Amino acid sequence: MTTPVAVIADAVAYARAVEDAVKASAAYYESGTSALDDDSYDRLVRAVAAWEAEHPDEVLADSPTGKVAGGAVEGDVPHTAAMLSLDNVFSPEEFTAWTASLARRLGGDAERYSVEPKLDGLAIAARYTRGRLTRLITRGDGTAGEDVSHAIGTIEGLPAELAEPVTVEVRGEVLMTTGQFEHANEVRTAHGGAPFANPRNAAAGTLRAKERAYTVPMTFFGYGLLPLADTEPSLAATLGECAHSDLMARAAAYGVNTTAATAVPGITAATVEEVLDRVSEIAALRPSLPFGIDGIVVKADLAADQRTAGSGSRAPRWAVAFKLRAVEKITRLLAVEWNVGRTGIIAPRAVLEPVEIDGSTITYATLHNPADITRRDLRLGDRVMVHRAGDVIPRIEAPVAHLRTGDEQPIVFPGTCPRCGSGIDTGEQRWRCESGRNCHLVASLSYAAGRDQLDIEGLGHTRVVQLVEAGLVADLADLFTLTREQLLGLERMGETSTDKLLAALAAAKAQPLSRVLCALGVRGTGRSMSRRIARHFATMDRLRAADAEAIRQVDGIGSEKAPSIVAELAELAPLIDKLAAAGVNMTEPGALPPAPTSAADDGARTAGDDAQALNGAEAVGAAGGGPLAGMTVVVTGAMTGALEKLSRNQMNELIERAGGRSSSSVSKRTTLVVAGEGAGAKRAKAEALGVRLAAPDEFAALVADHLDTVAAVQERQDA
Ligand code: IVH
To answer: Residue 614's pLDDT is what?
Structure first.
């Protein structure tokens, strides 16, 4: 886990390294504009420390290793008790060594530890007098900090008035959540300001800014509670004796925001193993948190242990930061590519100077749409802050505006479709080629033939290219009228492959409506949504007769999506007619159509359709029943036993057939997580949120009746 540290060769290199670190640190604390990302800074300081260990007589007075981070500024407010920094460890071994040294000081193991996320923001002291928030002070050099009371009222989680009229100081971290950061940069650039590079810089800049024409919200998380000079003596005594975990409970009861309200609440742990388990859990949850963390803080929980261990001038000896790997690096934006997707959407993608983040080399990052580029004020050649956590696609947080040289160039948006040269429909946020699905026919056909859509074996990307280039297919429906002669006329198509493909195409015609819908690639609907729509309407005719209001009745479709689905279906009408004429099934087996709500609706029903839909031998789980009714279920890890052969898509089908709703992410709304072998982050999140967990076998028993149907479909497909 430890990042390699550069070696400093001589005293000159050492002096330069100290100077660089001092400059970076000052910029970081004063204006939130360091030229070094956190990882580079940490490495520099560790290289400095390594050289100093070898040359103890040559240590420079201003070395970053010897002092509390951040320098004091004139006119600062003295702190009641020093606001210390934390020592870092980078691996379980280093952590274990730290606990051993703590045990030596305590004359035995710490009674218990408190373990909480290390929030990536700025330390702040908030003074409350008789329950009213009177003063906000930054950490400064640890002994005195800057008065930033002007920010009172802009920090969520730091109430103007506590639930009790106590005189106390609350310490904690001010940060911006991802959402607050995006909002802050949007507002800032709209006011002609340069964007902040990341949420931390944004919080630093915003906290110190005095007379701005606008205010943007930030968030506070408390991690300390202490008496002030005029705190009532009995309360002061109580606070002095409270364990850290009790102080946090007290702060929360006063109305202060703490990590207790997040997916990574502070906990207490009795052993080193328990602490390390919690470290892994928090690390696994990191990518899904709506705010940045850069480590885990472990503290001796008891006040008595803390007192015995004591503090150094820079950091307490009773607490340590277990640092996680950096998820952010600065690199250069080299170019923007414009790729056309299967539905004709023209999506920009950032090409980056390759940079290593958390063990992988990043060369591309997503950019959502052209407006996103404008909003972020990105320019070619910009140095950009890139964020990558877990398996999430890397994203550009913002340009690092203060590193601009003036040579950066505007990003040119395409005037015509970069793939086919057609015009571009720029009417919506996401631009689209006017040829729509036909622009990238190969992509749209390959997708339709895919395993989770029509599952046409033998129709891979290469074969699709061949068919399109030979002029045999110009849309999805053409696939179903291909003749044996046409296929035999293609290169590398013998009799066997031809017959196999024809059989696969014939089988595909019988796929349920949900898969046909998915294959059509109706924008705004994926696999799960296609299933919900198909089950709701039961037949294509009824779906096509539905207006936006009727479509809104489908679970998960809101007022924004409904009209766009209506429009998409209208656009797809000729293709749908052609597919139906070619014999493609347009009904959902087992689904019950909704009860008619009006005469017009009733008229849209065709007797044949309904009979077909209701005839299915798989008439189960319809109309809200089933063992999973009302439940939102997430599947993670490898399935075993009766579920072993099911793809993730089929697991989701199973959930929905059993009356539940399938989802891919765990949240407070999740009711059940089916966790198989190798389950990681989602399982950890479920545990943290207290969501019920089930092993694959347990779940199989729960949905046994419905398992047969999905298994039958699977067998038919295998055959
Ligand atoms: S305790 C005396 N707890 O990390 C103990 N600090 O690198 C001092 N931080 O200055 C702090 N989350 O700004 C503590 N849960 C947490 C924290 C935390 C973030 C920051 C804080 C501190 C810095 C040290």
So the answer is: 38
